[in-house]
Amino acid sequence: MLVTFKSKSSPEVTMYQEHAQRILDVLSKNPARGVITAAEAGNALELLEQEVAMSKLHPEVDTEHSTQLHIAHELSAEGETQELAEKHHVGFAQRAFPLLEMLRAARDGGENIVWGV
């Protein structure tokens, strides 16, 4: 399932729910439907930046989490090896970057971010 984040201050950001889940867990938000108000955007930005920093300090945890998701969803269908999956790893920082930019724009523009509507 896809989650599409929308805001008047920036283009839409779409990601798989399993990738958005970690971000929304950090923000204590429901993946099905929600809002980050302009007033919450600054705090949400800080929380996500801290999580990105932690993922960079402990890349082995980030790699393991991402690889397990990839293995569970794609390896059997594509016949891909775990070694190749690790080579194509996309880290949390890379996945979170578009939403971080959206949060900055929402904070600066005074706009809300919504999803699931």
Detailed description of the structure:
Helix content is 63%, strand content 16%. The protein has one domain (2-115). The two termini are 14 Å apart. The mean pLDDT is 84. A four-stranded antiparallel sheet has the order 2-1-4-3. It is globular, with a radius of gyration of 15 Å. It is α+β, with helices and mostly antiparallel strands. The protein contains five helices and four strands, in the order E-E-H-E-H-H-H-H-E.
Secondary-structure blueprint of this entry?
Elements (H helix, E strand, L loop, with lengths): L1 E6 L2 E7 H10 L7 E3 L1 H20 L1 H20 L3 H6 L4 H18 L3 E3 L2
Antiparallel strand pairs: 1-2, 1-4, 3-4
In short:
InterPro entries: DUF1840. The protein has helices at 17-26, 38-57, 59-78, 82-87, 92-109; strands spanning 2-7, 10-16, 34-36, 113-115.
SS field, number of helical segments = 5
Bin the helical content.
55-70%
Structural domain count:
1
Unreliable parts: none
Helix/strand order, N-terminal first: EEHEHHHHE
Rg on CA atoms, Å: 15 Å
In angstroms, what separates the terminal alpha carbons? 14 Å
| Form type | globular
Main sheet: strand order: 2-1-4-3
InterPro entries: DUF1840
Pfam families: DUF1840
Please name the defining characteristics of this protein.
4 strands, 16% strand, 5 helices, four-stranded antiparallel β-sheet, alpha+beta, globular
